[in-house]
Design a protein that fits this description.
Strand order of the largest sheet: 2-8-7-6-5-3-4
CATH class of the largest domain: Alpha Beta
Strand content: 5-15%
CATH topology of the largest domain: Aspartate Aminotransferase, domain 2
Shape: globular
Number of strands: 12
Radius of gyration: 21 Å
Oligomer: single chain
Structural class: alpha/beta
Distance between the termini: 55 Å
Number of helices: 13
């Protein structure tokens, strides 16, 4: 048969997408093992029944045909109103494209920002799909490290060097996998670099409702940045709607118009009944978002308290998102080795830091995604395993 294109055959670069441990943990669960999964960012609660009721109502009412490719007008307007408050400027529906989840938004945004062969910057550690998303549009991913010792804030000096000749910069705050919320100094530095080097900034802000300390400041709200920023949002994390695949891209009106053309040739929009449910979800206000976020803050604090001053495990306290990064280098193992052996010995699954880039090597990411009692059990097993290694 004909060979596949080089673009699709090389999406993961070296052929490893970094998720082998997750797949192995799922296989063990399917075989009947009681694995405690602290891997992916999947809520331990389902979507609120009221949102599901609205989805059902909308489907039964006939909203199952083709929906408008840019998104249902009322939903685009609701997202624009939400972003107007966050950005401190007027955002209209024409600045918003509804997309099937944040991942589709990242793909579309890089299509809008990059041509084949362009250098596209991203901060390392990064969410595992980022390099492949960049390669999928024919661009070259260029990681710029952020150090554990700096709380995973971006290295602005390194970023300024890498920006020469680049086309775009992908940032993520609150951050997956590190939980870092970018400081005002980091955001101002990024903005200055983007303007000096004429970069597009693609801002993944899907964790904007999960901030434990400080504040989430959209980079598009900084002076001069709205015209060069494509902001990605989603209801996956804020409303526990991961499987509904409902997100958006916000950007300059002329670019959004061209991205609508892209959507016409790719996704062809999002089902209308899901958009109606999303509109209902947004109308519930901040209370539902706070209730979805609250368990992650509680479990974060539980984990940090359990390993405070631990000789072999060092937490990088997250200011946001639903994860904690643990520095396990004192055990003498890599993140890959630690996670693999922890799964075999204790039936606890965490993600190796190496899944998220070189800067997270020697770390593991703990997702705060089990009910409190099972989460506490998993952390006890993790601590016990680390102490067994040291002994």
């Amino acid at each position: 048969m004909p060979s596949p294109s080089q673009r699709i055959a090389t999406l993961t670069g070296d052929g490893d997408d970094g998720w082998q441990l997750f797949y192995r943990a799922r296989a063990m669960k399917a075989a009947g093992h009681d694995v405690l999964e602290l891997t992916i960012g999947e809520h331990d609660i389902g979507t609120d029944p009221l949102i599901l009721d609205e989805m059902h109502r909308a489907a039964r009412a006939g909203h199952t045909g083709y929906a408008a490719v840019p998104g249902v007008a009322a939903l685009r307007a609701a997202v624009a109103a939400r972003l107007s408050k966050q950005h401190g400027r007027r955002v209209t529906a024409d600045h918003v494209l509804i997309v099937p989840g944040g991942q589709a938004g990242l793909f579309a945004a890089h299509h809008a920002a990059c041509d084949a062969g362009d250098r596209a910057l991203l901060i390392d550690p990064y969410y595992a799909t980022y390099p492949g998303t960049i390669r999928a549009v024919g661009a070259l991913p260029v990681p710029v490290p952020a150090r554990s010792e700096d709380g995973f804030q971006p290295d602005l000096a390194a970023l300024a060097v890498a920006a020469k000749g680049a086309r775009s910069l992908l940032i993520n705050s609150p951050n997956n996998p590190t939980g870092a919320v970018y400081s005002d100094e980091s955001l101002s530095g990024i903005a200055a670099i983007a303007q000096a080097h004429d970069l597009w900034v693609i801002a993944d802000e899907v964790y904007d409702t999960q901030v434990w300390h400080g504040r989430h400041r959209p980079i598009a709200s900084l002076p001069g940045m709205a015209a060069r920023t494509l902001s990605i949002g989603s209801l996956s994390k804020s409303h526990a709607m991961t499987g509904s695949r409902l997100g958006w891209v916000c950007g300059p009106e002329a670019v959004i118009a061209q991205m609508i053309t892209l959507a016409t040739h790719t996704t062809y929009g999002v089902p209308g009944y899901i958009q109606e449910a999303g509109l209902f979800a947004l109308a519930q206000g901040a209370a539902i978002e706070a209730s979805v976020a609250a368990p992650f803050k509680r479990r974060r604090d539980l984990l940090l308290a359990r390993i405070e001053d631990h000789p072999y495990l060092r937490a990088i306290p997250p200011d946001g998102a639903m994860y904690v990064m643990l520095d396990i280098r004192a055990t003498g193992l890599s993140g890959d080795e630690f996670a693999a052996r922890l799964l075999d010995a204790e039936l606890v699954a965490v993600m190796p830091g190496e899944s998220f880039g070189n800067a997270a090597a020697g770390h593991v990411r703990v997702a705060l995604t089990l009910p409190d009692d099972r989460f506490a059990d998993a952390i006890a097993r993790l601590i016990g395993f680390a102490e067994t290694l040291a002994a």
